[in-house]
Amino acid sequence: MAFWVLCYIGSMGLSEAQASDGATLVDSYIDDFSTEKARYDSYSASVFWVYGSYPPEHPYLAYALGDSDANGLIFRGYEQQPALLAYHLPISPDTQYRCGPMTVSIKIDFSLLGNEDPGNPRVGYLNVRFSSDGLTWSDEQNLTRGENLLEGPLEDFRYLKFKGMHAFLSNFEVEIYQAEPDIVVPTDYSTIQAAIDAASDGDVILVEPNYYKGEGFRNLSFSQHVEHNLVLMSRNGPDTCSLDCDWQGQAFVFNSGEGRGIIIDGFTIYNGQAPQGGAISCIDSSPTIANCVFEDNNQDFSTEQDILGGALYCEGGAPLVRDCEFRSNRADQGGGLYLTGASEARVVRCNFTQNEAQENGGAIMVVHTVPQASTPLFRQTIFCRNSAGQQGGAIYVDQALPEVINCTLYGNQAQSSSGGVICVNIPNLQTISSMTVRNCILWDNEDAPFATIPLGYTGDAL
């Protein structure tokens, strides 16, 4: 499943092995097992044996601490069952990777433990498996004694699982590299749209830090890349790269069926103005939007047309929105985000703060307009101090089937009812709202005293 290379590297340095391709080192991790980092940094492991206690009657890991030459981690099996040590990349919980193509180099030094009984020799081994999602794993790859190097695309090595018996792991190093861009704005092309038009399948477009405004930097289209994979990313993230729409449209328009392979990463987008999504609209399209900030979009309510989605409007499709911030955006419905038309949007690790809806859904509104209901997912997302003029200070659900998992909703307000979440059913429509809320915190959300769901509607409110 994964492209990987396993080789013996001798004394060659890991950094020197990667320097020739021009890639940039973005993250590294080293453990020589002189401390107990593995106990805390691994996401799954066999029990760590406490020195001086009786060994457990199941596989375990044991530190060999003391003299620097003897530092390491011992894999002890039990009744032919190996010990386990597994990692997820990035190992540091505070590290987040960008969306551009990345490669990983993993250096592993290990040896096998002998015994003093020549008539009953001990057979030891250490192997490794890889996974992109922690569910589907590669075949086991046996490591050789000494130094081993694993190399490949990061997406295939997100999870690593070591299994072994009578093995001594003395060094573990990880280095993550960002691939060099194919096109740089404004060095190669003066505008983002010109760079998109010139790009080929698989290209990475890098935008240098700056404040960008005007033609070629708004209403950007990927329509000629519907079947392609293309990454558009800023060099240093949203703090240093801004797209000012100047109240003359949106930053991006996806309406040609673009897929997840179209990636937008690392921009601050503000002053967008459009009836359907102030900053971005997605019509039957599924791009990936990551590490972006949406701020002060759709602030002008002078138009008589209803404004749906202060920052983002999604009709159908299954866009992925991750690690983004929605701040101070406005709309009539869905102050930050409006989902409709059987949308299967995925919103992960985002923050919605101080967004405002004149009517419903201070942060998000989910509504169905086709026989199939919208089934979006919101995971590990924070909703804070959003407000609605009517219902659903944070989230308003109408004839849809969303899931809200591991989220926090606090300090949201609604002038009518349901400061946190409302899920309503309109009479005489076939689709019934049913929202799943699991492992969430709802705290200090407010609505009007004695508020009720409108006459003729049924539903639940939080």
Give a quick set of tags describing it.
462 residues; mainly beta; nine-stranded parallel β-sheet; 4% helix; disordered N terminus
Task: Give a short overview.
By secondary structure, the chain is mainly beta. 4% of the residues lie in helices and 41% in strands.
Helix content: under 10%
Strand order of the largest sheet: 14-15-18-21-24-27-31-35-39-43
N/C terminus separation = 44 Å
Low-confidence stretches: 1-20, 450-459
As a percent range, the share of strand residues is 35-45%
Gyration radius, in Å: 26 Å
Major beta sheet, specifics? 10 strands, parallel
How many β strands by DSSP? 45
Q: What value does the average pLDDT take?
A: 87
Q: Number of helical segments?
A: 3
What is the molecular shape? Answer: globular
User: Structural class of the secondary structure composition?
Assistant: mainly beta
Describe the structure.
- With 462 residues, the protein is mainly β.
- Helices cover 4% and strands 41% of the residues.
- It has a 10-stranded parallel β-sheet, covered by helices on one side. Strands 16-19-22-25-28-32-36-40-44 form a 9-stranded parallel β-sheet, with no helix packed on it.
- Strand 5 and strand 6 form a beta hairpin.
- The longest helix has 7 residues.
- The N terminus is likely disordered.
List the SSEs and their pairings:
Elements: E1 5-8, H1 14-19, E2 24-31, H2 37-41, E3 44-45, E4 47-48, E5 60-64, E6 72-76, E7 83-88, E8 102-112, E9 125-131, E10 141-142, E11 146-153, E12 159-165, E13 167-178, E14 183-185, H3 192-198, E15 204-207, E16 210-213, E17 220-221, E18 230-234, E19 241-244, E20 252-254, E21 262-265, E22 268-270, E23 280-283, E24 288-290, E25 293-295, E26 312-315, E27 320-322, E28 325-327, E29 330-333, E30 337-340, E31 346-348, E32 351-353, E33 356-360, E34 364-367, E35 377-379, E36 382-384, E37 387-388, E38 395-398, E39 403-405, E40 408-410, E41 413-414, E42 421-425, E43 436-438, E44 441-443, E45 458-461
Parallel strand pairs: 4-5, 14-15, 15-18, 16-19, 17-20, 18-21, 19-22, 20-23, 21-24, 22-25, 23-26, 24-27, 25-28, 26-30, 27-31, 28-32, 29-33, 30-34, 31-35, 32-36, 33-37, 34-38, 35-39, 36-40, 37-41, 38-42, 39-43, 40-44
Antiparallel strand pairs: 1-11, 2-13, 3-7, 5-6, 6-13, 7-12, 8-11, 8-13, 9-10, 9-12, 42-45
